[in-house]
Design brief:
- The protein has 401 residues and is of the alpha+beta class.
- The protein folds into two domains: 257 residues, Aminopeptidase; 126 residues, no CATH class.
- The protein is 29% helix and 29% strand.
- It is built from nine helices and 18 strands.
- The strands form three sheets. It has an eight-stranded mixed sheet with strand order 1-2-4-3-5-8-6-7, with helices on both faces. A five-stranded antiparallel sheet has the order 9-10-13-17-16, with helices on one face. A five-stranded antiparallel sheet has the order 11-12-18-14-15, with no helix packed on it.
- Strand 16 and strand 17 form a beta hairpin.
- Helix 2 packs across helix 8.
- The radius of gyration is 23 Å and the shape is elongated.
């Protein structure tokens, strides 16, 4: 049974543990005070990465717990994630990723074991308002400094007791593969949590009658085109599973999510989280480009901000199997960097000719052009330098190998 004097991890426990871990692992973890609540309590952020490895090609993940003060499962899962990342099995993630964790986003609410903060504000739900509480101010500043590829908001269904855990996603933009990617990852997270603890898991969109799903996750998705997810853990003040089991379920879900950033998703050109496919589809899509993860992240956000101005991306119909004619029409502001167009062809093929508006595309080793294969398809990435208002034609001719 949970009692008010034993709700762990407390703000004091979190603060002490963070400082101790940062002192013990100075090359892997930094702790920063990113805000102070009205109750004069610090809001701490931990950032974990292997500082001996260059940051330019690292993925960025952002994990937040304790936004609602009476949901201790999220705080415990966030702290467990930090501790696991500093073990031998977690260190490989720090070589390829920068992982930011806010384990207790609502210290005042946590101290009082209440859902909102002590002013009755639902933390972070006010970040689009004119007046933003300290919790929201610290969050939005941390977000803008990190521009995450993956964002996970850790919660608990505090009224449920022994029920089921959930993985949810906000509303996705139409005519993208975002729903497909999110749903696939959510299934992997749910399976990992359920396999480790036998707690039933469900996956769902954050939209249901009476609520449009607008909240911090949707805002993060809209701002950065992050893969944005929210998890819910079942708990209750009088009837609940032991915290150790609830924490394990959450940690295993987080491990499954972070694993996506460690590898290359087969249908996109670059390693890491597959949200550099910004719009349209795997078979014909708009892709962020760049020499490293940092450049691609900046390019992704710049393209994402202009997505409403991509008026047309289509193929010449009827479409030939090995001769692709694709048209792009763009009405937005000029992009400082290139924009990529991804094209898929059935089977493994050889690219014979490739042109953009009648000019041969540079396919040399140092260019932004890419070609890759799966066991069932050939893909090419065609960069369009200095995208500005106008129409573009790509012609790609292949031959069967």
């Amino acid at each position: 049974m949970k009692t008010l004097d034993s709700i762990s991890p407390t703000t004091k426990e979190i603060n002490q543990t963070l400082q101790a871990l940062a002192k013990k692992h100075p090359t892997l973890m930094k702790v920063k005070r990113i805000g102070t609540t009205k109750g004069k309590r610090p809001i701490w952020m931990a950032q974990l990465t292997d500082s001996r490895v260059d940051d330019q090609d690292k993925q960025r993940a952002f994990i937040a717990g304790g936004r609602h003060g009476n949901e201790e499962s999220g705080r415990a899962q966030a702290m467990a994630t930090i501790e696991w990342l500093l073990t031998k099995s977690g260190l490989k993630f720090l070589e390829k990723q920068i992982i930011t964790v806010i384990p207790c986003a609502n210290p005042d609410g946590t101290a009082e074991d209440i859902y909102k903060n002590t002013d009755g504000v639902n933390p972070w739900y006010d970040i689009e308002h004119k007046k933003v509480a300290a919790e929201g101010q610290s969050f939005i500043k941390a977000l803008k400094n990190n521009e995450p590829d993956l964002f996970i908001d850790l919660h608990a269904k505090g009224h449920c007791g022994h029920a089921f855990d959930m993985v949810l996603h906000p509303k996705q933009r139409v005519y993208t593969e975002d729903f497909y990617i999110a749903w696939e990852l959510m299934q992997q997270m749910a399976e990992a949590g359920e396999a480790a603890t036998q707690i039933p898991h469900e996956i769902h969109s954050m939209e249901w009658p009476g609520w449009d799903g607008r909240g911090p996750n949707a805002i993060v998705y809209d701002m950065f085109k992050s893969i944005a997810l929210l998890t819910e853990t079942s708990e209750h003040n009088s009837v609940t599973l032991p915290l150790k089991i609830r924490t394990k379920a959450g940690l295993e879900r987080i491990k499954a999510a972070l694993a996506l950033g460690q590898k290359k998703y087969p249908k996109v050109p670059y390693p890491g989280y597959p949200n550099h496919l910004v719009g349209a589809s795997f078979s014909l899509g708009i892709v962020a480009v760049g020499k490293n993860a940092h450049e691609r992240r900046k390019n992704r956000i710049a393209i994402w901000e202009q997505m409403d101005h991509f008026a047309k991306l289509n193929r010449q119909i009827p479409e030939e199997e090995f001769y692709k004619v694709c048209h792009l029409e763009y009405h937005g502001a000029p992009l400082k960097d290139a924009c990529g167009i991804q094209i898929q062809v059935r089977g493994n093929c050889r690219l014979k000719e490739l042109s953009l508006d009648g000019q041969a595309v540079d396919r040399s080793k140092g260019s932004l052009f890419k070609q890759w294969y799966t066991d069932r398809a050939t893909y090419i990435l065609v960069p369009i330098p200095d995208l500005k208002k106008g129409s573009y034609e790509i012609i790609a001719e292949f031959s069967k190998t």
